[in-house]
Design brief:
single chain; alpha/beta; 13 helices; 43% helix; 25% strand; globular
Length: 271
């Protein structure tokens, strides 16, 4: 955790800048895929977001790294106002084009999750779904989420997580990075909990589950060419048997059919 806690908030390193520019490039080119992706648009966690947050009709909510806008859309039907932010302007513009006609209470803002353009104590809730593994400095993100929340406000995180076993975690992140060069790192549950505690968020509820990916759809979403797709497949095919069992890698006729990873949903309250 040393590298994660040593970042100085507000000071953007060349490495961080390059990582964020890569995110903009990858997601800008694939914006429509994230609107239509069934993994993102039809997850069974979407109905749980409303249930877990249990917000009032007049609530003002921030959805960080909104991507295809699936959380923002879910929230907008139940609360007063949603601010949907994303680092990638092209992604946000595409999402707005899909949602503006139906939802008039969503505001779209290009913003960095690690340095948000909002005043302290602004929001009743902050959400972030399937995005933090792209953030170079997750400690800054959690610090910012806490800062913009009202006292007693709710923070809901959903993301792919690394197994507690360090070797399996390293393998998972290697696969993800090879498939999507904008991937930074999936954290483990213990690492997220350390950050929650460090930045004033009390975890009140959480749930872990397996999430299945059909290989052909999953690998095509962010790869640039067939060679890259083949390299990802070979990495999975050559995985140790223990890893194949853990990630439930399904192989037929020498081709990867599917695999599964861990996803974690956690609800916190600002102290």
């Amino acid at each position: 955790m040393r590298e994660q806690f040593n970042g100085q908030k507000g000071l953007v390193t060349l490495k961080d800048y390059e990582a964020k520019e890569l995110v903009k490039s990858i997601f800008g080119k694939n914006a429509e895929k994230y609107v239509t992706s069934t993994t993102h648009s039809k997850g069974d966690d979407l109905p749980l977001i409303l249930e877990w947050l249990n917000l009032k009709d007049d609530s003002v909510v921030l959805d960080v790294a909104t991507g295809g806008g699936h959380v923002a859309r879910t929230l907008a039907a139940k609360v007063s106002t949603v601010f949907a932010t994303d680092l990638t302007k092209e992604m946000l513009s595409n999402t707005a084009a899909h949602l503006k006609a139906q939802f008039k209470n969503i505001h779209y803002i290009v913003a960095d999750a690690e340095s948000m353009p909002f005043l302290d104590n602004t929001f009743d809730a902050v959400t972030c779904r399937i995005a933090p593994h792209h953030f170079p400095n997750p400690h800054d993100f959690i610090s910012e989420a806490n800062r913009v929340l009202k006292p007693g406000g709710k923070f809901l995180l959903i993301d792919n997580i690394a197994p507690a076993d360090s070797e399996k975690g390293a393998f998972m992140n290697q696969v993800e990075k090879l498939r999507d060069t904008s991937h930074v790192r999936c954290l483990s549950i213990s690492e997220w909990r350390t950050l929650f505690q460090a930045y004033g968020l009390d975890e009140v509820r959480s749930e872990q589950k397996k999430k299945k990916f059909l290989f052909s759809d999953w690998v095509a979403r962010t790869t640039e060419n067939q060679q890259q797709r083949d390299e990802v497949e070979q990495l999975l095919l050559n995985a140790p048997e223990e890893f194949k069992e853990y990630f439930l890698i399904q192989i037929s006729s020498g081709k990867i059919q599917s695999h599964q990873i861990d996803e974690w949903m956690a609800l916190c309250v600002k102290k």
